[in-house]
Amino acid sequence: QVQLAESGGGVVQAGDSLRLSCAVSGRSSSLYDMGWFRQAPGKERELVAIIWSGNRTDYVDSVKGRFTISRDNAKNMMYLQMNSLQAEDTAVYYCAAKHIVVSTYDYWGQGTQVTVSS
């Protein structure tokens, strides 16, 4: 069983930066593909960024060039560096994990709120 815990959310102004962290416990994070998702009020949850077990990364178009996903398997941590934040980035951000042999993200954190004021 894998447990995930996010931290680092907050209230910032447009143009500011934040770094979200996701602590992984229960299993080695190196066995998992991991991602950041977000859900804004009244909207569907969307994938923001993925970091595969081999450290390849993918991003949704709206955050490319602004957000950077990374992981430190030695510390069982994953991060999302968010720069040039925009009001449209306001959402609850969730970290998620899936074992490398499955296709569904089935481990989720509790979420952390990011609010960007314009």
Characterise this structure.
The chain has about 120 residues and is mostly beta strands. Helix content is about 0%, strand content about 55%. The chain has strands at about 5, 10-15, 20-25, 30-40, 45-50, 55-60, 65-70, 75-80, 90-100, 105-110, 110-115. The strands form 2 sheets. Strands 2, 4, 5, 6, 9, 10 and 11 form a 7-stranded mixed β-sheet that branches. A hairpin with a 7-residue loop joins strand 9 and strand 10.
In brief, what are we looking at here?
By secondary structure, the protein is an all-beta fold. The protein has no helices and eleven strands.
What is the alpha-carbon Rg in Å? 13 Å
**Given the helix and strand composition, which structural class is it?**
mainly beta
Order of helices and strands: EEEEEEEEEEE
Model regions low in confidence, pLDDT < 50 over at least 5 residues: none
Shape: globular
Number of helices: 0
Question: Termini separation (Å)?
Answer: 40 Å
Number of distinct beta strands? 11
| Major sheet details | 7 strands, mixed
Residue-averaged pLDDT: 95
Strand content: over 45%
The oligomeric state is single chain
Helix content: under 10%
Supply database-style keywords.
118 residues; mainly beta; seven-stranded mixed β-sheet; four-stranded antiparallel β-sheet
SSE layout and pairings?
Elements: E1 3-7, E2 10-13, E3 18-25, E4 32-39, E5 46-51, E6 57-59, E7 67-72, E8 77-82, E9 91-99, E10 107-108, E11 112-117
Parallel strand pairs: 2-11
Antiparallel strand pairs: 1-3, 3-8, 4-5, 4-9, 5-6, 7-8, 9-10, 9-11
